[in-house]
Specification:
CATH topology: TIM Barrel
Strand order of the largest sheet: 7-6-5-4-3-2-1-8
CATH superfamily: Aldolase class I
Number of domains: 1
Organism: Bradyrhizobium shewense
GO molecular function: deoxyribose-phosphate aldolase activity
CATH class: Alpha Beta
Protein name: Deoxyribose-phosphate aldolase
Structural class: alpha/beta
Radius of gyration: 19 Å
Catalytic activity: 2-deoxy-D-ribose 5-phosphate = D-glyceraldehyde 3-phosphate + acetaldehyde
Largest sheet: 8 strands, parallel
Order of helices and strands: HHHHEHHEHEHEHHEHEHEHEH
Oligomer: single chain
InterPro entries: Aldolase_TIM, DeoC, DeoC/FbaB/LacD_aldolase
């Protein structure tokens, strides 16, 4: 049976930020991967117009206000991979970012929201390899994992053996999650066996660290390519599939997300393994992240609103969420620069 992107409209309910322990990470049974099944890849079909209609209707159908919106945004904070991936990154910047990850909202806001003492923190910190050890030290005792971008991020065009060494070095330095980039040429030429072998090697190099595979969907040209690459990476053992590096011309979009979520659903139906999803790049406002949360809930269910299975790669998003929550508490918007991230 061909797996297309169809239209569905299940009900969504507000995510409750207190539903699970925020310090509880990676409770989901880890994807062991499986042999490459080319039948699973060849049968994938995407109905582009249906996908576009599905996501275009989302903002008009799903809105949350007041306390419900605050609950969704508090939940979103726990799923942010707070990220700095710039050429001018320094150890001091990373230390400040880690401090923000530990305490993403001001204490007075947490108290007003009835969330004081609940241990609210972001899902992870994401940095380049050279800064992994700095982040691990700054987060000691916090239960916040460090994610390292790897394998020649963002282009992924360094030699394969160096990619494996980079993964291994980040794991030695304490990274608990590795965000790798695939070789886009394998997708563009339809060399699915090469993509499978590459990601399988990355998974082996990660050891106990969780593998997040970045597809760089803006480079893959079609939703069918995105869907097929998603399926191959999951079969190769990916724990998460991720849209983008944030460095492409087009990064995370809702149509791409829909295609990837449908593949996650199919993979779970066939193997029993739940695969995480991480959109990244261009998600900078509270309104943006709410749409991704709604789509996750509708397509995959309540479990995919937790950091075990949902992450958002972002840098400025947290500041906007904090502004929205301050408005909810006080009725006033503050200047964006009053909410520094790092």
């Amino acid at each position: 049976m061909a797996q297309g992107v169809l239209i569905s409209n299940p009900s969504a309910v507000p995510a409750q930020p207190h539903a699970r322990d925020h310090n509880h990470t990676h409770a989901i049974a880890r994807n062991s991967g499986r042999a490459l099944e080319m039948d699973w890849v060849d049968e994938i079909r995407i109905n582009l117009s249906a996908a576009e209609h599905r996501v275009a209707s989302l903002p008009g159908r799903r809105t949350v206000k007041k306390d419900a919106q605050a609950a969704w945004l508090l939940k979103a904070i726990t799923c942010i991979d707070l990220t700095t991936l710039n050429g001018d990154d320094t150890t001091e910047r990373v230390k400040r970012l880690c401090a923000k990850a530990r305490a993403p909202l001001r204490g007075d806001l947490l108290e007003a929201l009835g969330f004081a003492g609940r241990g609210l923190h972001t899902g992870a910190i994401c940095v380049y390899h050279r800064l992994v050890a700095t982040a691990v030290e700054a987060l000691d005792g916090s239960d916040i994992p460090v994610a390292a971008v790897s394998t020649g991020f963002p282009a992924g065009l360094i030699p394969h053996d160096l990619k494996l060494k980079e993964i291994e070095a980040s794991v030695r330095d304490g990274a608990q999650e590795i965000d790798i980039v695939i070789t886009r040429e394998h997708v563009l030429t339809g060399d699915w066996r090469a993509l499978y072998a590459e990601v399988r090697d990355f998974r082996a190099a990660c050891g106990d660290a969780h593998l997040k595979t970045i597809l760089a969907t803006g480079d893959l040209k079609t939703l069918r390519n995105v869907a097929k690459a998603s399926m191959v990476c999951m079969m190769a053992g990916a724990d998460f599939i991720k849209t983008s590096t944030g460095k492409e011309g087009v990064n995370a979009t809702l149509p791409v997300t829909l295609a990837m979520l449908r593949m996650i659903r199919v993979y779970e139906e066939r193997t029993g393994f739940k695969i995480g999803f991480k959109p990244a790049g261009g998600i900078s406002t509270a309104k943006d992240v709410l749409n991704y949360q709604f789509l996750m809930k509708e397509e995959l269910g309540r479990d995919w609103l937790e950091p075990d299975l949902f992450r958002v790669g972002a840098s400025s998003l947290l500041a906007d969420i904090e502004r929205q929550l301050e408005h909810h508490v006080t009725g006033r918007y503050s200047a964006f620069n009053r909410h520094p991230v790092g």
